[in-house]
Amino acid sequence: MSGLSRRGFLKLIGTSVAVSGLNLSTGNKAYAYSGKLKIANAKENYSVCCYCAVGCGLIIHTENGKVINIEGNPDSPINNGSLCSKGSALKFLVNNEERLKKPLYRAPGSDKWEEISWDKALTEIAKRVKATRDKYFEYKNKDGVVVNRVTKIASVGSAAMDNEECYLFQKFIRSLGLVYIEHQARI
Amino acid sequence: MNLDIFSFLLAFEKVEKELEQMDLGINFSSFSYEKPLLEEVEIDHLKEMPSHCKKALEETVEEFFKNHDKKDEIVEFFEGKAIAHLLSKRFRKCFDNEKWLKAYCPLCGQKPGLGYIDSEGRRFLQCSFCAMKWRFRRVVCPFCDKESGYYSMFEINNRNVRIEYCMNCKGYLKTFVLEPDNSSPYRLDMETLSIDEWAYKEGFKKNTVSMIGINFTS
User: Fold this and answer.
1) CA of A58 to nearest chain B CA: how many angstroms apart?
2) Nearest beta carbon to residue A36 from set B45, B79, B154
3) Residue numbers in A near B132 (CB within 8 A)
4) Which chain A residues are Cβ-neighbours of B196 within 8 angstroms?
């Protein structure tokens, strides 16, 4: 054979040396390492981080329906596989006995938290916002200029909200008269 | 016949090492990332293996395949394989991983024989013929291009090896986690043959031949 022609070379691709009745001997190297099975039948799934509006891609590993690992998705154009410190600890959001599942309420002067329903919690929050707003609402400042503002409540927006939710939330708090409006992404 | 596979690999790798300085006479810069290089670029005549390498290869084959009746074909096969491996090493130096991302080899168009996951979680596939490495998406099966994501993880010889398998096409790929880039693919494949057995028993099939190119299914 005088060198490899292109055609001859392409012919080789995908072929193999077929050796009939081959008996592999591995000398001293033990090929028969049985291999320790560490994780059986795990499944990888794509997901998106629940924390903020950046929306970092995740790969979630589950074994028998239980989350065993969460890592950044290296193919996501948003985070290229990296996660912030909060996102890196996502596994402990899922498998965590301390996780809050219901709203808790501690009455003034009490030393105990008690479970309450979402209905009651939201009503209570609304009641207090209304009371504070009504009590400290300023119609005019000390120079007599109309200001229509509340300076005793501040809003720190949530990073988990998307653009449209932020728009609605901003409408709502402006209508209350808030002037101290901040967003988590700026902090 | 009896084949001492690790001694053979040692001899073959020695031939490959001697070949390393060889001038291939191929310009990789015109690669357009649309079709595999060997289909796209006109290679009229690949340069011949230097005579001392060829001689060493012939001697190696003579030693290890004593009773085989088609030694010429075996020499031809391993000559092609050694040159293809060298091609892939040169090609990788000017290859942009982000521009390919396909399920087959950018050099020769073959399906992958091994997989790797690096420290940043990126997945690389390695061609079963020329040992070219290229980047691919995680979770997706390289044989049927569907999302699969099933795997079982083994520890062999202080290595973390996963069998990534697909419930759709029943194909599997042996994937090494945090493996150094310069590990010999032939050795990695041979040293972890025991988990191929596991995959066969579970009913999955290997879509490619072994990395060294010897067919073991006898």
Assistant:
1) 11
2) B154
3) none
4) none
- A4 contacts in chain B (CB < 8 Å): 45-46, 48, 79-80, 83
Query: Under an 8 A CB cutoff, do B68 and A45 touch?
Result: no
Along the 218 residues of chain B, how does pLDDT read in single tens digits? 677 888 899 999 999 999 888 887 777 887 889 888 888 776 655 667 888 888 999 999 998 888 788 888 888 889 888 988 998 999 999 999 999 999 999 998 899 999 999 999 999 999 999 999 999 999 999 999 999 899 999 998 888 999 999 999 999 999 999 999 989 999 999 888 888 888 888 999 988 888 988 876 54
- B-chain residues near A16 (CB < 8 A): 77, 209-210, 213-215
Distances B154 to A47, B158, B163, B196 between C-alpha atoms, Å: 25, 10, 8, 11
Distance from CA of B194 to the nearest CA of A (A): 6
Interchain CB distance below 8 Å, B6 and A26: yes
Full-model pTM: 0.82
Q: Would you tell me how many other CB atoms lie within 10 Å of the CB of residue B28?
A: 16
Cβ atoms within 10 A of the Cβ of B127, count?
Answer: 28
Does A73 share its domain with A133? Answer: no
Residues A80 and A115 in one domain: no
A-B C-beta contacts closer than 8 Å: 171
CB-CB under 8 Å, A31 with B129: no
- Using alpha carbons, select from A94, A34, A106, A102 the residue that is nearest to residue A60: A94
Other Cβ atoms less than 10 A from the Cβ of B51: the count is 8
Residue A73 and residue A81 in contact, taking contact as beta carbons nearer than 8 Å: yes
- Shortest distance between the Cα of A111 and any Cα of chain B, in A, equals 47
Q: Which residue of B has its CA nearest to A2?
A: B48
* A134 and A88, same domain (yes or no): no
CATH number at residue A87: 3.30.200.210
Q: Are residues A139 and A90 in the same domain?
A: no
Q: Which of A94, A127, A161 lies at the terminal end of a domain, its last residue?
A: A94
For residue B207 the two structure tokens come to: 């879509």
Provide the number of structural domains found in chain A. 2
Would you tell me how many other CB atoms lie within 10 Å of the CB of residue A130? 11
Q: How far apart are CA A171 and CA B139, in angstroms?
A: 42
Name the residue facing B215 among A1, A5, A18 (closest C-beta): A18
Domain extent, residue A160, equals 104-186
